[in-house]
Amino acid sequence: MEDFVCAFEERIGSPSLFCGRRQEMDLLLRWTTDLIPKKLAKSRALLGRRKSGKTAIMQRLFNILWNLDGNVIPFYIEVLDQDQWLLEFSDEYYRTFLSQYLSFKTRTPLDKKNRPWKWGELNDRLRQLGNREILREAENFQDDLEKEDVGDKIFK
Predict the structure, then answer these.
(1) Together in a domain, 61 and 19
(2) Is 41 contained in some domain?
(3) I need a labelling partner for 149 at 20 to 30 A (CA). Which of 14, 24, 120, 141 fits?
(4) Burial level of 32, CB count in 10 A (0-12/13-18/19+)?
(5) Helix, strand or coil for residue 85?
């Protein structure tokens, strides 16, 4: 792809460094571009040992789908194996989802490290996009986030 844009920087580095895994990548691309839009896709799990390339494949798939600008909006989040406050996890997850959705819709690359945009920037971009329904949902989420009493709720 001549005009290939990395929506976010892949951990492996330059996309030209990605090699091998052709069979897995072809399977995932067929699944996302052919089956998902036709509602014929079944869920898939990518299993493998640590350091076997799962993250590299998923980040590569995200950037390819982002560049295709097709019917499937890519979403990628890395959930660390550590104790997390449920409220903080919910906030990061929702901001990551909105950031990637808006990045795809507006063709604006993400932060190089795929950090989600802050609420102020998200709200500005949602207003610019003009989708009042999503903006209202985001505002409702922010209201709930501010009112939440976290107590000892922890996500393990």
Answers:
(1) yes
(2) yes
(3) 120
(4) buried
(5) strand
Residue 98 lies in a domain: yes
Same domain membership, residue 151 and residue 88: yes
Domain assignment of residue 23, given as a range: 15-68
> Are 52 and 88 within one domain?
no
Is 76 among the domain residues?
no
Query: Phi/psi class of residue 20: alpha, beta or left (left: φ > 0; alpha: ψ in -120 to 50)?
Result: left
User: Half-sphere exposure of 90 toward its Cβ, with a 13 Å CA cutoff?
Assistant: 14
| pLDDT, tens digit only, all 156 positions of the chain | 457 888 888 877 666 666 677 888 899 999 999 999 999 999 988 888 888 888 888 998 999 999 998 999 999 998 888 888 888 999 999 999 999 999 999 999 998 888 999 999 999 999 999 999 999 999 999 988 888 755 455 445
